Amino acid sequence: MLMEIKISKKPVKYEKAIEFLDERVHQVYENINDELIWFLEHKSVYTSGVNFNQKDVLDKKIKIIKTNRGGKITWHGPGQLICYFVLDISKRKKDIRKFITAIENSIIETLKNFKINSFSDRKNIGIWVLDKKEEKKIAAIGFRVKKWIAFHGFSLNLSNNLNNYKKIVPCGISDKGISKVDSFKKISKSKVINELKINLIKNLRY
User: Fold this and answer.
1) Alpha-carbon gap, residue 46 to 14, rounded angstroms
2) Distance between CA 83 and CA 182 in Å, rounded?
3) Which of 37, 75, 84, 145 is such that its CA lies 20 to 30 A from the CA of 26?
4) What is the residue range of 127's domain?
5) In the chain, alpha helices (H)
6) Where in the sequence numbering do the catalytic residues fall?
7) 141, 128, 121: which is closest to 74 by C-alpha?
8) Tens digit of pLDDT for each residue in 1-47?
């Protein structure tokens, strides 16, 4: 399977990114373009998925962009690494559970390579760490499957300001916190991208 790895150095406007993904979904389905893994960063933005609940908005002044991805409400912005993908699950045995596991394992293995232990949670999708003896989310996963094409992706907190999450109930989970890579050690974004790229390519070959 041919796959394009796209890395954007400058922040990408959220709406522009989603427009690009939607077009790529069509192209991959029609077999006129390659699959995609895209690393980027957004300017500060709050987005909601299809399971969004209005009660998860704590600051009623914030603007929220509604999307067609899975999940609830989250924040994207500076210091957070976004990984979007457009991947054909029909070429991967049409196994969505195995696809999710491949994404989860790629993040976990990447963090492990930097000596940060993390884990997945079947009840609360995403990747979690023990930060000061508390379970906190370090990576959020939210995607949609259309005609067996999976798109949207995940976000990994690197050095972002966690105060942005105080205006919402992140992913609808009120009894757990949010963490970031910087809480454990400082790692350059380029090194994280390189490790994620290697692990994603490896784990998505099934």
Assistant:
1) 10
2) 18
3) 75
4) 3-203
5) 14-29, 96-113, 189-203
6) 171
7) 141
8) 689 999 999 999 999 999 999 999 999 999 999 999 999 999 999 99
